[in-house]
Amino acid sequence: MASETLRHDWQDNDVLIFTHIPKTAGTSLAAMLDRQFLPEERLELRYFQHPHLFDEIQAESEHRLISTDEYKQAVKTGEDVDNKFGAYKFIRGHTPYYPPPFKTHRAVYVTILRDPKKRAYSDYKHIATYNDNPKHEVVKAMSYEEFLMEDDLQKDTRNPLTSFILNKSPKTEADFEQACRNLESMAWFGIVEHFDASMLLLHYVFSWPYNFESWHLNRARMQSPQPELSAKALKRLEALNHYDIKLYNYAVNLFHQRVQHMATELFAENKDLSEASLQLEAEMQVLSSEVQALKVQTEDLQGALQAKEQELQRTIERYSGMKGALRALYQAAIPLSARQRLYAIRDRNR
Q: Which residues pair with 191 in a beta bridge?
């Protein structure tokens, strides 16, 4: 990495842009990112199938909404983008990596990637399940293999990860290499299959407090088993995601490097704390030894005390026995009539 540190140096003119690739846990991530900004600082890009419902949808949203097409057109023309989008601190939506030509602001990109084969199956399940998808009626009766083999249904699903990162469909190795460079330039990217580590890295990069709350997506749904595919269908799946598979493998390797970099930085930043912790641990071991010694002494004292208590009890028992024996001797030595006269004298003297 060109930068000496992974931490992002926030500037007042920064605009965080989340490239949300479909079926990559982006909704869960977007909800978490939303919490880092005020509603008036957020802008969400949406595809509106029913534009006449925009006002109603906007009224129900905490933050501002605009159509994805409107955003793309504004970025493409570059017309007044600072005034249009510079007022926001966070922009998110299904929009590819295409930094707005800001003059007075800086675009800061983030995204999250998912295993292409798992993402492809999730995409099929979504289309087959939800009737708001234009392909639903055709796909709902199809098996996954049938879906993969149908050319007309795959026009928009070839290498979606690379297409979003590249801002066009990849055709050559040069395109793939550019996608890798675009990914490298992002302040942060995560990997769905390493979600916990991704969240730690995200909060570290942007210096956000991490409260260890589970930000997890629906694990059961995201980890649903993949169906068995024939050799022909598997080959087809890999062909449809040729560049995505390469990009994902590259991203996982780069991600591991960044996590290791984070660990190194954290150790360096907390070196004094680590040394103090080691010293404290040594002191605790000494105290633990002293406590153990006192415990042994206490056990010895308790044993001695118990022995004395037992000795006292035996003395009391002997005293009681002797007292009883003396009483018996007294009664045997003095006749009853004499004892009665002695008792009478005792009572008069009271």
A: 113
Looking at the fold, whether 299 and 175 belong to one and the same domain comes out as no
Distance from the Cα of residue 128 to its chain's centroid: 30
Q: From 269, 302, 336, give the residue that closes a domain.
A: 269
Per-block mean pLDDT, blocks of 10 residues, the chain (350 long): 78 97 92 95 90 87 93 92 95 95 97 96 92 90 94 86 97 98 98 93 93 53 78 96 98 96 84 66 76 81 82 78 68 61 65
Q: Is 25 left (phi over 0), alpha (psi -120 to 50) or beta?
A: left
Phi, psi of 106 (to 5 degrees): -130, 125
The whole-model pTM stands at: 0.75
DSSP per residue, 121-180:
HHHHHHHHH-TTSTTHHHHTTS-HHHHHH-GGGGTT-SSHHHHHHHTS---SHHHHHHHH
d(CA 289, CA 285): 6
Domain membership of residue 326 as a residue range: 293-348
CA pair distance 259, 255, nearest whole angstrom: 6
CA distance 24 to 251: 14
> What's the CA gap between 290 and 346, in Å, rounded?
64
